[in-house]
Amino acid sequence: MLTGNFYLTRIIEALIISIAVAFVTAPLSIRLAHKLGVIDRPKDARRVHKKPTPRFGGMSIFLGSMAAMLIPAGMNDKIKIAMIGGLLMYLLGIADDIKNLRPAIKFLGQLIIASGVYAMGIRITFISNYFGAAVTDSNANVILSAGVAYIITVLWIVGITNAVNLMDGLDGLAAGSVAIMSLCLAYIAYIHGVRLGSMPVCIALVAVAGGCIGFLPYNFSPAKTFMGDGGALYLGYMIAVLSVISPLKRATVVGALIPMLTLAVPIFDTAFAMLRRLLRHESIMKADKGHLHHHLMAAGFGQRRSVLIMYGIVGIMGEVAILISRELYKDAIPLFLIALLYLGIIIVPKRTGNKGIKRIITQDTSELEKEYFTEYLNYERERRKQLREAAKAAAEAQMEEEEKEPEEKLE
Length: 411
Fold this sequence. Notes:
- The chain has helices at residues 4-36, 58-73, 77-99, 103-119, 146-167, 173-192, 199-219, 228-245, 257-262, 264-279, 292-298, 302-325, 329-347, 357-362, 365-410, and strands at residues 39-40, 53-54, 126-128, 141-143.
- Helices cover 72% and strands 2% of the residues.
């Protein structure tokens, strides 16, 4: 039987290899982006960067994580299947970066890849039994039919893939968030260890996190390169599939919630975006400026602080998942409520006025930017008025002092 020291060595190796390969290949991806013309130009108001930036950096994440995943691939056939699907998803993203595929074509490609992965054996076959359903296994889990298992598995993979893609709106946001989520899931897999057969998944998740960490020095604001759809689709796919492969759902009665809690922020942001667009009677695929990071930017936090705030919320939800995996529910609930509070603060504007819930949900952040800017201007006017009045009062006081001095001398 393999010992914990053996796996710990493999984890450290995977982390070092992934970070090193990603860091070394990132400059190469920048040069390649210029040769291929894969440059993201700030051609609309939705983009927050101000100058043309290469968007081929996903190559470094892909190479770094894949190189490190060669270590556990021999220990688990499902890791190999995940790697094949990851390659296909990365190539789909590269095609979109170069050719700018239509959303329907890209979505169809994702469905085909997810279906292929399901056919090769990576699937969600049961969920935890909360309501006493009749058809259960020895662990009281609801057994899904083949059709239902297929639908849930494909929706999970495609949904998380696109959720991570939607997060890629600020410098370093997607890469850093995926690194945090991957490390949280990896730690959960590690603490349950060999008993549940989760160590190969742990190593693979560490490899994904390392690829993101090695890429971040080139992607954090101000970014030298973007990961592009190649990197975003690949990361979303890998974290979705690895959470399906992991046997963590056997660790606890509510273990099926663990991946959902870890990925809660991108899931919430995507669901909120879909609701927002439906209420506007727009296509759910239409891009807008209503995501969580756009709200933070509209409030004036700037790119770096907005990204760090998002890291904090992602980290809180990751800690909630870790606590639940250890059945520490009373400790997890307060953190979960804190995360919800922060999400609410981000979404709800400072001054709601007579705005209803629908108005708040559908409000574009450009409107918030105007409100915040107007508030800032009013604040600046008031501040300068107070400074002028203070200066005037000081000048008058000085004049009175100067008038008193001759009178005192005469006396």
